[in-house]
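2024-03-11 09:14:02 DEBUG pipeline.ingest accepted 1 chain
2024-03-11 09:14:02 DEBUG pipeline.ingest length=287
2024-03-11 09:14:03 DEBUG pipeline.predict start
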Amino acid sequence: MVSKRKKRWHLLPGEPITELDKKVMYWENKGREVPSRDLIRTPEEIEGIRKSGVINTAVLDEVARQIHAGMSTLEIDQICYDYCTSHGATPACLGYEGFPKSVCTSINEVVCHGIPKAEDILVEGDIINVDFTTILDGFYADASRMFIIGKTSPEKEQLVRVAKECLEIGAEAAKPYCFVGDIGHAIEKHAKKYHYGVVRDLCGHGVGLKFHELPDVPHFGHKGEGMLLVPGMVFTIEPMINMGTWRVFVDEEDEYGWEVISDDELPSAQWEHTFVMTEHGVEILTY
């Protein structure tokens, strides 16, 4: 039965129908959720996002060179701000909906959106996620990495490793003309092998011309659910994997209302890339 929902995939009068049009309209006529055409990036837009991604990757490379026990997360923020701005770009987080810093620094049980602070000092055994988004010439690129400070426990090492595997497995599941749910299904299946929780309250997202766009990319779910993924779409995959429960809460002591913590306060790990969908699968635009 054809869905009664408003059509997303509009062709202009007299416009020739491409193979991409045919494939998208096939699924739309079956009542499936498809992207609007304004989510399909032009080659020029993809190149702009790619250039932003080069700087974003270099920012995280600079953090990797300097991060160490005894430094504060505020120092990490300064590293990111200085490198980004000195290369003609802007930190997207700074001032975004009241976020006070340039980067998110999330230590141990902080799942995401950790705010850099002078009093947050890294110590041996910590695991930390550093999440940075760059704006260059109006184009956004977004990525995060985990860092292990010195030597940590085997349990934390495994969590960091499995979280990265979840990102890689999610990327492998992302195929042209598959659905967003295929990504989440693959990630959740792998995380469950280790009895880890996959955070459900936050997700990956479209990115490129704005910080957050469609599609939403949950990291759990079922195959065939969600929006159709089409060549030219740009989005993040960023699974947040908790050692215990998937449930989270916002820290009441955070005056800005940003920091998200695992409900049982066990460690959490996250890796993130920005991807562009091609005819052959996803290409990574940030590392």
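2024-03-11 09:14:41 DEBUG pipeline.report The chain has a mean pLDDT of 96.
2024-03-11 09:14:41 DEBUG pipeline.predict end
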